[in-house]
Amino acid sequence: MPTTATHEPSSTDPVDRPELIGAFDRRGRRVNVNDLDARRVWVAAGGRCTFCKEFLAEDETTGQAVFTGQLAHIVGATTEKGSPRGESAMPLPQRALPQNLMLLCPGEHKVIDTFEHWHTYGADELRAFKEQHERDIRELTGLLRKPKSTVIRVAGDVRGRAVDFSKQAVIRALLEEQRFPDFSLHDDSRNCEVDLRSYEGEDDSDPTYWEATSLALKRRLRPLSNHLKTKQIDHISVFALARIPILVQLGVLLDDVTNVTVHNRRRGTSEGWGWYSHSRSDNLQFRVTAVAGSGDPVVTVSVSGPVDLEALPDALRGAPRYDIRAEGVPLSPTILQSPEDLQALIDTWREVLATLEADHRNQPISLVLAVPAAAAVEIGRAHMAAAHAQLRVFDRIDNTYVLALETS
Fold first, then answer.
1. Is the N end or the C end of the chain the one with fewer CB atoms within 10 Å?
2. Tens of pLDDT along 133-175?
3. Residue 149's beta-bridge partner residues?
4. Residue 213: which of 254, 156, 160 has the closest Cα?
5. Is the dihedral of CA 143, 145, 146, 149 positive or negative?
């Protein structure tokens, strides 16, 4: 495998032994590197520059299949004056071994070997760059044999505050789970994103806002249903942050038949996607209090904060009510520390759904939630449209709760 495109050997160059191939320093001087060792460096680097990540098996401008990469020495190839990082006790033969060579594009090679930058790019720093790059290549290429996951991102305004999260943050969260993001079932990579931030009326809970965003959600997710029916999707990863009614509707559309992981949005200093713990919280419990009444049932869920029962609209007062409340730890947006905590909440919700099916069959369920985003999605997923009555999801506006949408 060629190791450089910056020098063509002349007829006066010495002929290498068959097992050796030419490598060249930044001045174009030949340095012998064993062919197998050169290949090891190229393969370990994935054919990409260790610094800028340029693909070095073709010219990016012309697309021609030429090897543009160069093998750069971490400790200089010689001890001569002017050899970058050459003042080292490392024996000369070891300087041509893979552990002392890194794959670079010509531009980055020139940067690290320029005298003014030797202190910036010392041997230890370059070795760390090489190890990190090769570790990343090994991990990323290894994901090709690991489970793939179709990604759904839902972004909406929350109380007038624009929500934004990068695609890279989503990918990092999947890599932590040893999953590979799969966009192949979409027309393009943007089709996995449902962007609701441009819709007007979120701040005052305008009925047209809920209608428009719910319709947009259904339209964007519609292609997934066909893929699910034909078994083209094995797993879905959901990253969603929007108003609670939208998140519940999202969960209803996904239901609990599909193999779905709903990712938690961390808050505070460790913002990103993931949980705070991998085990069930010791003291966290969920208690259900039933309040007798007449009419269609109401369910309140107080987890991230308390549902203000005094703010319930007149239409919900006097109705049979089931209050689910977290106990044992203070209510807060970070109360659900792990997937097990979330599952405990959803198990309690399913028990309430079973009670509603038995005692209030076919009566629409009014839902008033104070829960984290991931919990809102999972509450929607646990609701089975074929078995349970319709959900009427309320939203807090000023000092009262108003009907936002009816799930479908």
1. C
2. 999 998 888 766 657 788 888 988 776 555 556 777 787 888 8
3. 181
4. 156
5. positive
